[in-house]
Amino acid sequence: MNKKIFNIVAAFIYENGKFLICQRPENKARALLWEFAGGKVEQGESREQALVRECKEELAITVEAGELFYKNSHEYEDIIVNLFIYHTKILQGPIQKLEHNDIRWISSSEIDQYEFCPADVEVLKIIKENY
């Protein structure tokens, strides 16, 4: 069986020693796991455009995508994701919880208290070492 491949963009929003994480909704794959805000790149849009759109749809914020922070591919049981995480700056807020079950600002020392999507495991190690 050929698995679908998705290009996924995500926001690494880091402010005042903490970064933003979002808990997936109960009704979606990987329910209630934690992740970075973001989502699928749609046909005809750049990764940066997708990131801006997804943050607007999920959090009601206007963001600016900075440089690429991390990328990898991860194979789940049902899909393959090519993950692109960008340094992201909030230009206009405030953050609203439009789609996620929960949203938190956490420090790198708190990462182990949360269960993240498997695709995020490697980048979380980098964050622990550097932030």
Search tags:
131 residues, alpha+beta, Nucleoside Triphosphate Pyrophosphohydrolase, 2 helices, 18% helix
Please state the overall shape, judged from the principal axes of the Cα atoms.
globular
The first-level CATH class is given as Alpha Beta
Could you say how many structural domains there are in total?
Answer: 1
Report on the biggest sheet. Answer: 4 strands, mixed
Helix % is: 10-25%
CATH evolutionary superfamily: Nucleoside Triphosphate Pyrophosphohydrolase
Strand content: 35-45%
Chart the SSEs and their pairings.
Blueprint lengths: L3 E9 L1 E2 L2 E6 L10 E2 L2 E3 L6 H13 L2 E14 L3 E14 L9 E5 L14 H10 L1
Q: Could you characterize what this model shows?
A:
By secondary structure, this protein is an alpha+beta fold. It has one domain (about 5-130): Nucleoside Triphosphate Pyrophosphohydrolase, CATH 3.90.79.10. It contains two helices and eight strands. It has helices at about 45-60, 120-130; strands at about 5-10, 15, 20-25, 35, 40, 60-75, 80-90, 100-105. It has a four-stranded mixed β-sheet, with helices on one face. A hairpin with a 2-residue loop joins strand 2 and strand 3. The N and C termini lie far apart (about 40 Å). The mean pLDDT is about 95.
